Amino acid sequence: MTHRSLPVAADFHVDGPDQVRAVFYGLGSDGTVGGNKATIKIIGEQTDLFAQAYFVYDSKKSGSVTVSHLRFGPRPIHAPYLIERPTLVACHQWDFVDRFDLLAGLDAGGVLLLNSPFPIEESWRRMPAALRCGIRERGLSVWLINAYRVAREAGMGQHINTVMQACFFAVSGVLPRQEAIEQIRASLRKTYGRKGEAVVAMNLRALDATLDNLQPLDWRQLPAEDDLPPPAPVADRLAEAPLFVREVIAPLLERRGDALPVSALPCDGTWPTGTAQWEKRNIADTVPVWESDLCVQCGKCVMVCPHAVIRAKAVAPEALVGAPEGFRQAPARDPDLKGRSFTIQVAVEDCTGCALCVEVCPARDRTEPKRKAINMAPQRPLREAGRGHWDYFLGLPEMARGDLNLHKIGQQQLQQPLFEFSGACGGCGETPYLKLASQLFGDRMLVANATGCSSIYGGNLPTTPWSTNAEGRGPAWSNSLFEDNAEFGLGMRVAIDQQRQMALELLERLGPAPERADPLLPAALVAAIRDGDQHDEAGIVAQRQRVEELKRLLHAVAPEAPGAAAAARLLDLADALVKKSVWLVGGDGWAYDIGFGGLDHVLASGRDVNALVLDTEVYSNTGGQMSKATPRAAVAKYAAGGKAAPKKDLGLMMMSYGTVYVASVAMGARDEHTVRAFLEAESYPGPSLILAYSHCIAHGIDMARGMEQQKAAVDSGRWLLYRYDPRRTERGEHPLQIDSRGQKRPLAEAMATENRFRMLSFSQPERARALARQAELEVARRWAIYQALAGTPAPSPSEAPA
Amino acid sequence: MTHRSLPVAADFHVDGPDQVRAVFYGLGSDGTVGGNKATIKIIGEQTDLFAQAYFVYDSKKSGSVTVSHLRFGPRPIHAPYLIERPTLVACHQWDFVDRFDLLAGLDAGGVLLLNSPFPIEESWRRMPAALRCGIRERGLSVWLINAYRVAREAGMGQHINTVMQACFFAVSGVLPRQEAIEQIRASLRKTYGRKGEAVVAMNLRALDATLDNLQPLDWRQLPAEDDLPPPAPVADRLAEAPLFVREVIAPLLERRGDALPVSALPCDGTWPTGTAQWEKRNIADTVPVWESDLCVQCGKCVMVCPHAVIRAKAVAPEALVGAPEGFRQAPARDPDLKGRSFTIQVAVEDCTGCALCVEVCPARDRTEPKRKAINMAPQRPLREAGRGHWDYFLGLPEMARGDLNLHKIGQQQLQQPLFEFSGACGGCGETPYLKLASQLFGDRMLVANATGCSSIYGGNLPTTPWSTNAEGRGPAWSNSLFEDNAEFGLGMRVAIDQQRQMALELLERLGPAPERADPLLPAALVAAIRDGDQHDEAGIVAQRQRVEELKRLLHAVAPEAPGAAAAARLLDLADALVKKSVWLVGGDGWAYDIGFGGLDHVLASGRDVNALVLDTEVYSNTGGQMSKATPRAAVAKYAAGGKAAPKKDLGLMMMSYGTVYVASVAMGARDEHTVRAFLEAESYPGPSLILAYSHCIAHGIDMARGMEQQKAAVDSGRWLLYRYDPRRTERGEHPLQIDSRGQKRPLAEAMATENRFRMLSFSQPERARALARQAELEVARRWAIYQALAGTPAPSPSEAPA
Fold first, then answer.
1. What is the pLDDT of residues B318-330, one digit of tens each?
2. Does A657 sit within 8 Å of B648, measured CB to CB?
3. Nearest to A636 by CA among A716, A755, A746, A719
4. Which positions in chain B touch A791 (Cβ < 8 Å)?
């Protein structure tokens, strides 16, 4: 700007010669950042070395790229910029070898650490040629480890942080190897002590196994470039993408967003939907494979998939003529779908490998009980074929929405989801509910989204999972603040109602009247649009057709005709004549805490809005802080000694109005109940509230078994299933209907399956017992209160089997 | 500032010669401002004249001075400043003749309109000499009307607005008299039409009577100055006031606040309490007079007095030796007070004349049933003696707090109120609850006050009704925002708890220990303070004595002694060792709406705070807007067609936690129940919520009968009395106890006694009936729910007498 800057020579650096400078490429939630923070602590606190760390990552819940920059050295470090000349580069995800220039700035003689699922020679062959050349030219020390295998065998599932941390200490030379190992041991004991001895032992086992499995790659012993086959041409996966995706989203995804001019961005801030499909993150180690012969076509795998990567279609058999090789199908089993061919397909490149689908699958091979109708298999061998199958699948016709029986999960799940491939954690308990809403109402849905996980995975620039169907209809979505989201959504409702009202007035004005000999619009159409019954799918489809006819007529009005101005205005507003569905979406931090005042106000207003609370019982997005939805006895941030207060009963509070539809659901406990509640809530012509139990990584559970945890919460009475429908009063029935079937399982035992409850019994066993007793009493009392309110005779918890 | 301003001649004015410029002195809520607004509308809308108005008043709920500035003329008015040269001055309150220079700027030949309760000659004699001289010198036209008598006789009670408006038109000449009268008639029909035909007729009657009663005062016919007695010397009522009152508050009260230097104001914003007592507003036309022979000494009149102007004491007879003449007393009737003399006194200069005390008095003269033990009588004749009696009364000793049985209203009401002479409306339904709290806990109370009526009458600069007892102890009070008051009060609680914790640690540090041969504090005192039982008055008194002893010992520590620094710190913190009582106070606008999110959060926190909701079922302070506490079918601003949604059940919502003490009270229905709830709430060592039904001018009722309206709300089932005490669970009892005794009175009939419900039946009778039916159903349903929750067998509303 001033033209006074001095030129900087490209080779000018001020890095200290005695520094270790390490850059780590990881995947969000693979433990890279956490492991590096532990490393910094060890070196900073336990040695005389100085240490510095900076972490670059976006707000995706998991699966996004993280880059850690760590410096160590004997002298103070004053370097407020990223590492440009690393002495060590660690790549914690094999796929990154294709995506990033790992050797950028790496000094000759530096170290490269690779997490590879392949043996040494295969790894070498699979590297891009440029990487191999760079290694050879700079004479790098290269180390390989199959971290996922080591972690899995140590019982740590996908958690490779301890393994990769040990590798770093082993190859970086920042500390003598033996000292480093001892320090890691101490650190693991400290970090995991409160989670119990078993977790500590598991980590220590992983540490030992790491040192046995870390291997040097001696490139001098491996094939030279001339002995390797030339690389296959890489298809441009964005070739068919819309212009905006190619010109704006792609550069942002490739970390080149800073180079975009302001003019490339939409001037009003709106952003194209359906864009997450272009990311193709390929982050799953294993993906589900469908066994068409075993499948009972229940739709459960499709329903629970948090990322909408498993989908089903039922098509006329002739539609499958020309299906690609290996494309599986089976005759549809549902009598309603008689004569159709049924298929389930997996978007292997979008899958996160969470395995919820496998856990929820009820169908097993009788001869080989471990084999289900859906099973996990390594992703890489399936990737190429899977991509082709998926693309073919997308081209198959959808069934007409009006033809589906939505109370049967198998049919309901044939609805196209309009929420796909979000950045939520693998196994997320929230997103299946959003996907369900998008299937049921997505083509006429407006979503006001509170800040929280759902606003991050829902609209994480540059992409959004909210998408559209073939007609271009899909949810309109916007994120407001934590503290005003309900009001924000109410504004959407008021605006639509106002537009509809205005459209109706214009309609009447342009329709027949005694004083108009030749009205612009025929009487029958005006009446049909005004009085059109839109209470179900068929009615909405019919109304859409009427509105199309209306638009056709309005388009034909000559500009100089009498009423032309009103016709033009009605053309603008005509879409408001089709029923819209307004949703207020957020987590418990929003609904129970920060946005509660507004939510209460909006639900009290009587307006037709639907609030969906994705209740993880904790502030998930910010790292697990206690909310008023956190149950008694759970450990959370700000409740290190277990929460001493009860969980707030938001449902009961809102039921007290008598005018709000309230449902409490848990998909993992009863999926058809969840669907019923969504349908009832949406159809209720007033405010509705759905409390949706959402398992979460913050609960300290195996996420693959999230749906079972939901069931445990219901079976132990901790989470009630119920529906409160004010319409029942008009029929002389109790508005409250309890759908839980009593306590089938002791509460304490169910709580012990989640680490958030269990960990307190290690650190403060006496307090843990006292809190658990209180929790038990509360569950019994709540059950009694709900029974009293429902006025239905049903067993009290004490009569139920313990 | 620039030294460039031109000098302005004192006689320079730009007022148009053809303008009518009128200045009106009124009392808040006497209708002056409203009447003038109607006048402006009439002239501005119905004539060719231009009009301008500006109103000067403070935020006192009623009883403060209002000054209206009105200009009218044939040409556009550009005068963005107050009227300095009026052509007409109207004084709507007789007492102002002594307080203000009414003739300031009034042109020779101008008009003076006086509302006087006296005949012409007496009025003339009672005027200050300066006023008489001014009238004579300037040759003014003077008009008199006894507006209060005219209004009363027309059935309008204290409402003089119509009367004074007619007078203005009659004497100002701004319109031809007959035209003006017709315009007023039309205006009255328009304004009061929706309140029913009876109200319109009443106003038209008042209009006619006004013209018959308006009299010219011809000073030429009246005694000259020499024929009048010299004026009596005026006592300086502030002579005994503290310096701050004399130097800061008095100028502010006299409307000379702009002349105060910044340095006169407290630098940290704290403001002395107990200052409302210096206002002596003398705004009551009539005040209560106690009949000692008829009185049963029940204390009800003292309890309901919104302004703490009726008080009782029971003293040793010898204390009354030397009582001034006419000072009434009687032997105490309560056996617990045997041998004492009982007296009730009235602060006639602070009374607003609301007559709640008379309405609530249960004792009647058998021979003359209209005569009660307390009756209203004109204030003026009582003023002088009353002042002396009151001053004498204040000097009588208070009974020891520990000696009173607080469950007997007669004894409880002997407690000194520390909330006196607020600027609330006459007959206010809120302030008796605050006064009660100040009696019970005022000497150790901290109040966080939400914005609303209670923040206006609670801390309306330059005075506050919150005051202190003889020991200087009284509530600490502060006002925060509408939206954060609960959190603000929680901060007070956290701060006190922290101070107490610190004080206890210092106490232990300065007490005996094995390594300290000669501790600064004796073991017995340390233990007694640490373990002191403060659950009742006696315990608190004892703890205060121990803390005094502690302070004495700490004061005696030599500055160089070991531990002197800790001793000094403990001296600062020692008062935190005595139990404090934190109160979150506000109206329904705060608790149900704008501050609800925070209130819910604070009550869920488990901290020991007491929330008092003064529920007027409407935003009273801002003029009657609907809140979520507004009951179904009531008319309010934003609910012109009657509220279509139900009243929010805040109590039930908070009961759902199971950890919050919740009480719903209505003093006018059961006063001893109210006291019990306050005592229980305060003693509960966790969060408490008291919902206090407060009648309000916004209800459209005769305020003198406010307590009966409270009873009607309870008897009709619209307001439930209950107490939910989590402590009862520990004793194996139901925490919820319903204290209402079923529905004793049909809901519709009770609602019809309040204009907020009734007015809809005039404007939209069909809708009014439908809403009333819904309200009835809701009351029945709510009763059933509460019965179910309480688990107690009790008659349902349908079984109760209708």
1. 999 999 999 999 9
2. yes
3. A755
4. 788
